[in-house]
């Protein structure tokens, strides 16, 4: 899907939400987007590997990952032009422009070959984006389809806060709705179902009493989706 074919409603919504928020996004989100660094540490990118982030936002995670895995190449996709402007500026400041390539696109339906010149990636990760994407299940399928044999998909997002007090869940959900964010109750089931469909291994863990969920789907070396 090209930039001109992006779903206008959602693209405009995200640009509207983050036109000003992007300037303070990383300062505020570090307090409640928990588990992102753990996801990056667990990527275990192979030497010279390729990594795609879906919903790269301000570039915070992809910059961290590019520093952590200095011999890999990184690619990022986001539907918001406003966020991509901030992300590209961050990447330039860090001197990473030669190893990180960003493009505007829809995480539910993208053509990696057309956008980046690469069809398959060793790692794909999605950090706190599925809870913002309409039709997020399609993003999971698209991410798996973009993996090379032996590659892995890494996801961190809001859980159901199952081990936390009800009052906390109520306050959190109310706050998140202001930003069009909705924790996906069926996230684990969808990820597990997709791992079974693709013959992949599935690892899942809850973080911080269910505040966040972290999952890894690894494709077998001889399997292609």
From TrEMBL:
Transmembrane recorded as keyword: no
GO terms under biological process: methylation
Boundaries of every Methyltransferase domain copy: 51-151
EC numbers for this chain: 2.1.1.-
Top-level taxon: Bacteria
InterPro entries with a match to the protein in the record: CFA/CMAS (IPR050723), Methyltransf_25 (IPR041698), SAM-dependent_MTases_sf (IPR029063)
Keyword Transferase among UniProt keywords: yes
Alphabetically ordered keywords of this record: Methyltransferase, Transferase
Enzyme type, top EC level: transferase
Gene3D superfamilies listed in its UniProt record: Vaccinia Virus protein VP39
A GO molecular-function descriptor: methyltransferase activity
Name this polypeptide is given: Class I SAM-dependent methyltransferase
Source organism: Mesorhizobium montanum
Taxonomic path: Bacteria, Pseudomonadati, Pseudomonadota, Alphaproteobacteria, Hyphomicrobiales
């Amino acid at each position: 899907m090209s930039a001109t074919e992006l779903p206008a409603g959602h693209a405009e919504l995200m640009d509207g939400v983050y036109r000003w928020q992007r300037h303070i996004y990383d300062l505020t989100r570090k307090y409640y987007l928990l588990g992102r660094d753990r996801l990056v540490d667990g990527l275990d990118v192979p030497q010279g590997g390729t990594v795609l982030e879906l919903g790269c936002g301000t570039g915070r995670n992809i910059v961290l990952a590019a520093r952590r895995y200095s011999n890999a190449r990184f690619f990022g996709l986001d539907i918001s032009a406003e966020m991509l402007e901030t992300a590209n500026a961050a990447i330039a400041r860090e001197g990473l422009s030669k190893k990180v390539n960003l493009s505007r696109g829809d995480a539910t339906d993208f053509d990696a070959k057309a956008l980046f010149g690469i069809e398959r990636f060793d790692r794909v990760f999605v950090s706190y984006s599925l809870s913002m994407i309409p039709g997020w299940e399609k993003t999971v399928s698209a991410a798996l389809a973009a993996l090379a044999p032996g590659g892995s998909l890494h996801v961190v997002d809001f859980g159901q806060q199952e081990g936390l007090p009800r009052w906390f869940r109520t306050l959190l959900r109310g706050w998140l709705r202001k930003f069009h964010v909705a924790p996906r109750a069926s996230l684990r089931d969808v990820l597990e179902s997709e791992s079974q469909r693709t013959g992949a291994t599935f690892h899942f863990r809850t973080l911080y009493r269910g505040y966040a969920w972290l999952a890894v789907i690894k494709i077998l070396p001889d399997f292609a989706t």
